Amino acid sequence: MEHPGFDSLHEKVRRWIVRKGWDSLRPLQERACVEFESGDGDLILAAGTAAGKTEAAFLPICSKLIGSGHEGLRALYVGPLKALINDQFSRLEELCRELDIEVHRWHGDVSSSHKERLLKSPSGILLITPESLEAIFTLHGTRLASLFSGLEYAVIDELHAFLGSERGRQLQSLLHRIECIPERKERKLRRVGLSATLGDLSLASAFLRPEEPERVHVLEAAGSGSELKLQLNATLQPAPIAKSGPKSGRATSADHNGEEAEEQSPDLIELVDHLYRNLRGANHLIFTNSRADVELISSRLALRCEEDRVPLEFLPHHGSLSRELREDVESKLQNSSRPFSAVCTTTLEMGIDIGGVASVAQIGPPSSVAGLRQRLGRSGRRGEAAILRMYVREKEAEVDTPLELALHPQLLQSIAAVELLLEGWCEPPEASAQHYSTLIQQILSTIAERSGAKADELFALLCNRGPFAAVDKSRFARLLRDLGEADYITQMHDGTLVVGLAGERLVNHYEFFAAFASRSEYELRADGRRIGSMPLEQPMPVGSGLIFAGRVWNVLSIEPGRRRIELQAGRRGMPISIRGGGGPPVHDKLRQAMLRALAGTERPAYLGTLAAKLLDDARSRFSRSGLLENSTIQAENDCVVFPWRGDRVMNTLLLILSSLGHNVISSGMALRVRNIDAEELRVQVSNLLKQGLPSAMELTAQVADARLDKHDDVLCEQLLHEGYASRRLDIGGAEEFLSEWVELG
DNA sequence: GACCTGCTGCGGGTTG
Predict the structure, then answer these.
(1) pTM for this structure?
(2) DSSP assignments along A713-745, one per residue
(3) Architecture of domain A228-242+254-423 in CATH?
């Protein structure tokens, strides 16, 4: 058998591989080596967790670096997490030690002496976060040429984590700014993206090389093809005694309004009992949609272990817990001889290697297929089937329950997500969104880097053919005026822009380097020890109860000055403030799959007994309602519309109908328009379509607070609303639905 | 709208 990829590697690298005892390169590594040898274009390596992506990139890169005669820094590795960088640093060091290639790392926990050493004599490979790269540009503008003029490769790890986000746009801008360093004479970097398998890899190509996506080569590892064992269980919350109308906002996985009711709820006990009976004795990951649910479920499981006098083996893990507590959980999952399971948020979806887990559980409906897929990727030890247990807590429907709730939306959403998962589809990242806030950061950073810059120079660098190409000249000028008014920048007599007084404060604080805003939080302490942090958004009187880190506490004192909350072990309580459970916006496809689940007749084999019964129940309500024919029901005085579209269309429809002067309530799946007849509403909408829908500006003017990103507060109304509309609305989609809907009448 | 992620320079103390 021939191994052209292996044979193309430098002799020293081949020797290292042989000494490691590897029989041969993995298929993806072999193909990557061939690609590196034969071409010079950008590259995406897409594969599951254990395909050896890092080596696929760095074996050939290191081969090229050995004895190339070039000095200086040659390859950049950008990773989203410090822990990941530390992980990769050890692996790369081991390889590079024998090849005489220096490896450096740079992030917030690396000492300044190490950083200074790299700045003085740049060499080899640098592992870094986007924020630290930003810091280099902002603070060491004069050393960029010596650092980056000889750079050849940029490897982006966990590429999918950057797609469609502010941080991703920042990274694109930084890579572009490296390529534009004058001393490089327009020489491009060879960009290499490492990614989990994605639904639509063309968008990943467009991210990696925006100006020439067609030149990106994508190497995708053959799917693992391993078996998937699925189970979807439903529990039923008894109908509340107090009656209330349909609530605004989306149905959430857990509702913490009634403390006692929540604690005693038999369906919660049933759910926890199922987890306890099925998951004890092995390592599992139990994912929820919110930190509050992590606390609720993990504390109940802990209580269950206590009652049975068995060792505690369910531990909470989320971003508000202190690093010490999180690392303790991670090391128990990794190393302990005893079995441990983590109840967690997205914190354990990515990054550090915790080894394979026996199964994955998902509490509450997944709001994206991509997220579900990412979570499922943590299951399935080599060769074994992946196991996914899903749980939804539905509410019991009564005679007067509104139809949009009686159709069991959480169950439908879970079924829809599973069906799309099995079809191999998942949401593409959002590529069209404007990120004015990140553009503001990049303008300030570039001015700081160059100690002043001209407006046309900035436009040419960042917009024109750069990462913010969607921003035209007039909007860019508008943005500069906004920055001037906020005193972020000021103009000198010769037209040079420099950082203004308020801008100085911004740029000189370390928070500037991140493109995203950080939550302002209170520190939680117990027995003199920091146990985590949480935002304090609700009144929380001293003495009140709180579940945190899987235990019950009482609030001892609150110090607003030091932003500190002192706790002591308590007996009863409920999660305060860290709440939610909405998740990312639901995609059009997911809502359409919910309709298919309702209109279908076959029962998916993975449904548990109660889940199957609830689906039957929803289907018979659905067929009686006539919804399949005209997407609308008349419920007494209200007209309830079921568009079967994603959240962005639903948001837009809500604003459009509100602009007609109606009182509209969204339940996520349906829009309830109060006190109007369906026929009358159709006439009004038809007239509106004829005269033209309101503009994005007019629609978003109804939004109380349109600020979404870090620096949005300095934007003028126009840019603020444009930015909001590009992220949250879909006017074209809404118009398409309304035209169809008017025809139905 | 969920949940994540990240960060400098300097002043103080301790240790070799």
Answers:
(1) 0.90
(2) GGS-HHHHHHHHHHHH--HHHHHHHHHHHHHH-
(3) 3-Layer(aba) Sandwich (3.40)
- Find the Å distance, CA of residue A346 to C1' of nucleotide B2: 9
User: Which distant-in-sequence residues (6+ apart) come within 8 Å of A399 by Cβ?
Assistant: none
Amino acid residing at A382 = R
Contact predicate A18/A46, CB 8 Å: no
Residue nearest to nucleotide B7 (CA to C1'): A510
Instruction: Residue A201: name the closest of A372, A424, A37 by CA.
Output: A424
B8 nearest neighbour residue (CA to C1'): A510
- A508 closest-nt by C1' vs CA: B8
The class (CATH top level) of A4-220 is alpha beta
> What number does CATH give the domain A436-513?
1.10.10.10
A625-683: pLDDT as tens digits: 999 998 999 998 999 999 999 999 999 999 999 999 998 888 889 999 999 999 999 99
Cα separation of the two ends of chain A: 67
Q: Which nucleotide is nearest to A350 (CA to C1')?
A: B4
* Model pLDDT for residues A258-306, shown as the tens digit of each residue: 444 455 688 999 999 999 999 999 999 999 998 889 999 999 999 999 9
> CA at A41, C1' at B12: how many angstroms apart?
51
Distance, Å, A482 CA → B13 C1': 45
Asked if the domains at A228-242+254-423 and A436-513 fall in one CATH topology, the answer is no
Distance A447 CA to B10 C1' (A): 25
| Domain ranges within chain A, ordered by starting residue | 4-220, 228-242+254-423, 436-513, 521-583+630-744
Q: Which nucleotides of B are covered by protein (CB under 7 A)?
A: 1-9
CA of A68 to C1' of B10 (A): 41
Nucleotide nearest to A162 (CA to C1'): B5
